[in-house]
């Protein structure tokens, strides 16, 4: 399947993730004006950072294949919708191409569950890793994390992404059991608590005072603590 077809399917499927707010800016498209550039296109949405800055994001799913059969989800395994799957390299290339053309300032990446939670989360983390480490990408990254994934993968996601989020799914355990029986309140709450703890730990570490100056070390210094989802966690 061609990348443009995958983009059409997986950008449309990602619109159900309630993560982006409309910026209020008017849409501009050079195809109509004869100029250069566009604020409209497949997979591009507008979101706000914690400081109120509006950013344009490439908002896509890694895949809309899913092993779960949640009754409320259009991408459930029993749903008759067109399916597609990006490779890690395709997402990285799309993000960089859009970024270099000034279409976007970052990436929002979510996914259906393929094989299992750890395999899917590992693929998403690898996208962020390649962007940050292989391509020195300094743009905004928002990863939708998977509650059932291992704490180690969630930790890796937080070290690479600016923001993490978890779908709360349903407000009650009874509702979750009825409509999404493969998921549990325990796993969702556990993942949210894990992320909150790591975010708070990273913030406290950055507040720590510098090491006092000594004759052998010279002036006061402090190793820079690793960041963890500095833009926070959302649901």
From TrEMBL:
InterPro entries: Aldolase_TIM, DNA_rSAM_put, rSAM, rSAM_sf. Residues 61-197 form the Radical SAM core domain. Residues 203-235 are annotated as: Disordered. Its cofactor is [4Fe-4S] cluster. GO terms for molecular function: catalytic activity; iron-sulfur cluster binding; metal ion binding. It holds the Pfam family Radical_SAM. The keyword Hydrolase does not apply. It comes from the Bacteria. Keywords: Iron, Iron-sulfur, Metal-binding, S-adenosyl-L-methionine. This is Radical SAM core domain-containing protein. It comes from Stenotrophomonas maltophilia (Pseudomonas maltophilia).
């Amino acid at each position: 399947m061609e990348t443009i077809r995958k983009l059409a399917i997986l950008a449309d499927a990602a619109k159900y993730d309630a993560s982006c707010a409309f910026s209020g800016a008017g849409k501009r498209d050079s195809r109509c004006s004869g100029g250069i550039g566009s604020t409209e296109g497949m997979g591009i949405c507008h979101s706000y950072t914690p400081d109120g800055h509006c950013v344009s994001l490439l908002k896509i799913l890694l895949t809309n294949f899913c092993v779960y059969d949640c009754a409320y989800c259009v991408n459930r395994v029993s749903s008759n919708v067109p399916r597609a799957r990006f490779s890690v390299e395709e997402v990285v290339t799309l993000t960089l191409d859009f970024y270099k053309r000034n279409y976007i300032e970052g990436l929002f990446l979510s996914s259906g569950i393929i094989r299992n939670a750890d395999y899917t989360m590992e693929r998403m983390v690898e996208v962020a890793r390649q962007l940050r480490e292989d391509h020195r990408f300094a743009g905004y990254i928002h990863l939708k994390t998977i509650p059932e994934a291992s704490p180690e993968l969630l930790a890796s996601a937080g070290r690479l992404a600016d923001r993490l989020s978890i779908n709360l799914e349903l407000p009650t355990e009874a509702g979750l059991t009825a409509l999404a029986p493969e998921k549990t309140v325990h796993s969702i709450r556990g993942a949210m608590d894990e992320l909150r703890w790591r975010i708070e730990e990273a913030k406290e570490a950055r507040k720590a005072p510098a090491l006092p100056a000594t004759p052998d070390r010279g002036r006061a210094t402090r190793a820079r603590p690793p960041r963890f989802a500095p833009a926070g966690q959302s649901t």
